[in-house]
Amino acid sequence: LTGAVTINLTLDAQLTTGAKLYLKATADTTNRIITLGTGFDTAATDITVTASTCFCRTFVYDGTTFVACNQ
């Protein structure tokens, strides 16, 4: 990442409960913020990716939104 980013998902009608989404982000030499928008659980908080590191998180579709399962 070279700047802050917001991720919004368009959820297809064919998406099945239990589907997984894997997010992997690497920050440049500055801490970066990822905002989880449309398609993510409203309880999801912003993610800070520490400078010069890689961040990974898995989300599972609960039938309505993607929910983080490894925080």
Structural write-up:
This protein is mainly beta and 71 residues long. Helix content is 0%, strand content 41%. It contains no helices and six strands. The chain has strands at residues 5-7, 20-26, 32-36, 47-49, 54-61, 66-68. The strands form two sheets. It has a three-stranded mixed β-sheet with strand order 1-3-4, with no helix packed on it. The two termini are 20 Å apart. The model has no long low-confidence stretch (mean pLDDT 95).
Q: Output the radius of gyration.
A: 13 Å
Cα-to-Cα separation, first versus last residue: 20 Å
Largest β sheet strand count, sense and barrel closure: 3 strands, mixed
Series of secondary-structure elements, N-terminal to C-terminal: EEEEEE
The averaged pLDDT comes out at 95
Strand numbers in spatial order across the main sheet: 1-3-4
Helix content, binned percent: under 10%
Shape: elongated
Q: Secondary structure elements and their pairing?
A:
Elements: E1 5-7, E2 20-26, E3 32-36, E4 47-49, E5 54-61, E6 66-68
Parallel strand pairs: 1-3
Antiparallel strand pairs: 2-5, 3-4, 5-6
Briefly say what this structure is.
The protein is an all-beta fold and 71 residues long. It is built from no helices and six strands. The chain is elongated and about 40 Å long.
